[in-house]
Hints:
By secondary structure, the protein is mainly α. The strands form two sheets. A two-stranded antiparallel ribbon has the order 1-2. It has a two-stranded antiparallel sheet with strand order 3-4. The chain has eight helices and four strands, in the order αββααββααααα.
Amino acid sequence: MRKVMLLLLLLLLTGCGGTKFYLFGVDTDIITEAEGKELVYAGIGAVASLGSHVVGHYVAGEVFGVDFEYQDYYTKEHVTIHDDTSDSDLRWFARGGFVMQQTIGTALTSFEATRYSYFTKGYVGMNAVHTWTYGLRRSKYHDLEMLDDHGGNGNMEWGIYSAISLHNVLRTNWTRKGGDNN
């Protein structure tokens, strides 16, 4: 099974494109042809994608009254719930990061003016990688497990968020032609 998964990953990375290199079906010439400022915009978009996930948890925490604190985000031992909140509120807190991240990505890809921007390319690209690999990263206790522990279905929601990420990747114009590239 691992050999099949490795072959599929290799096909996704190359896109079966001969001598050209593709990353998940996107022609990497867009990166080599980009100017410095365009790459900066893409980098800012990528950081904004990860930041929006964290901000989504803060917003959900405020809206649903979940008193929490981040302890050590980088080792993934990061959420301590301080009070006795309902399972429903904790599920919304757990999904808050993905909901914010996917909503912003969908908004960025919904308008012709932003669909071409390198900021959007960076945001949508990082969002896809972050979402698609979320369950693979070794985390002590992550959002999908929190959903499962409080009556939700983490795998189903991960599938939904992954589909939205794919939708946004496919809606993003990965060429330099036809629009504003800021």
